[in-house]
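Tokens in:
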């Protein structure tokens, strides 16, 4: 069993270079399942197409030097983990939970947020922010603010 961790892994310069080289080859091959051979093993490994696409996305992020975190969709996060993934403070996440904007469940006295609920919250928040910016741009045009 692979240990689940939610800590971002920041690639080194060597990791980014290796990811870029692997991405160049792998991106050309993404058309269905992929059979690969691991160095030191004679047994081929078949990766299903969704895993190959995920690997390409992972390599792309690493090649650009971005930190990467893999989180299962059914994962339960602490409020601190949720805050880290959103790039906000833990008290802000707690406030959003307490005001009913972010679903959660209690485990004893601790709040837990499902990852898929966090993704839905972020998507709705991003859409609301984009709409507010569009509305402000329209108002600026109507008032002839020059933008």
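Residues out:
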């Amino acid at each position: 069993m692979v240990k689940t961790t939610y800590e971002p892994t920041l690639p080194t310069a060597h990791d980014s270079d290796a990811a870029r080289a692997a991405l160049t080859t792998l991106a050309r091959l993404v058309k269905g399942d992929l059979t690969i051979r691991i160095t030191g093993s004679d047994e081929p490994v078949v990766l299903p197409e969704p895993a190959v696409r995920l690997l390409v996305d992972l390599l792309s992020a690493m090649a650009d030097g971005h930190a990467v975190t893999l989180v299962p969709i059914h994962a339960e996060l602490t409020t601190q983990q949720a805050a880290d993934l959103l790039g906000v403070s833990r008290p802000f996440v707690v406030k959003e939970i307490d005001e009913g904007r972010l679903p959660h469940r209690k485990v004893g006295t601790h709040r837990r947020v499902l990852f898929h609920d966090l993704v839905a919250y972020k998507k709705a928040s991003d859409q609301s922010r984009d709409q507010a910016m569009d509305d402000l741009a329209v108002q600026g045009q109507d008032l002839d603010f020059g933008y």
